[in-house]
Design a protein that fits this description.
There is one protein chain. It contains three helices and five strands. By secondary structure, the protein is α+β, with helices and mostly antiparallel strands. The chain has one domain: HIT family, subunit A (2-Layer Sandwich), CATH 3.30.428.10. It has a five-stranded antiparallel β-sheet. The protein is globular and about 35 Å long.
């Protein structure tokens, strides 16, 4: 299979992983809308939400809930945008959920969103550590 996300999951390609359990993995988007923008993927390859087996829906969305809390707090955001595309605008044909930190007046309007870049690997690693720390904190309090 030539899926980029499967290669990240299988550690054939590097990803800046912020979360991983038996069913899913989350990593920082390399072209984020805002710093802290994560992608949550099931470890098994499924192209769309409709392809996801029923028994994986609950764990995947529990993890998206955990990540949305962690990203919001870690990035000192006022909220999050959580979304997925199915085929149209799905740049990688592997089911993935975007978790994006949001702030009032951040400029995110409609469906034409500017992408940014991290200044360097150190900045990306710092964001990674913030989110991982918040996930650990949230998991400890459950």
């Amino acid at each position: 299979m030539d899926c980029i996300f499967c290669k990240v999951v299988n550690k054939e390609l590097a990803g800046t992983v912020v979360f991983e359990d038996e069913q899913s993995m989350a990593f920082l988007d390399h072209r984020p809308l805002f710093h802290g923008h994560c992608l949550l993927v099931p470890k098994q390859h499924f192209e769309t939400l409709a392809d996801l087996p029923a028994e994986l829906i609950k764990p995947l969305f529990e993890n998206s809930q955990l990540l949305s809390r962690a990203v919001e707090t870690a990035m000192k955001a006022q909220g999050t945008f959580v979304a997925m595309n199915n085929r149209i605008s799905q740049s990688v044909p592997h089911l993935h959920i975007h978790i994006v930190p949001r702030r009032k007046g951040d400029g995110l309007k409609g469906f034409f969103w500017p992408r940014t870049k991290y200044a360097d690997q150190a900045e990306m690693a710092a964001v990674q550590k913030l989110i991982q720390s918040e996930i650990e904190s949230l998991a400890a309090n459950q």
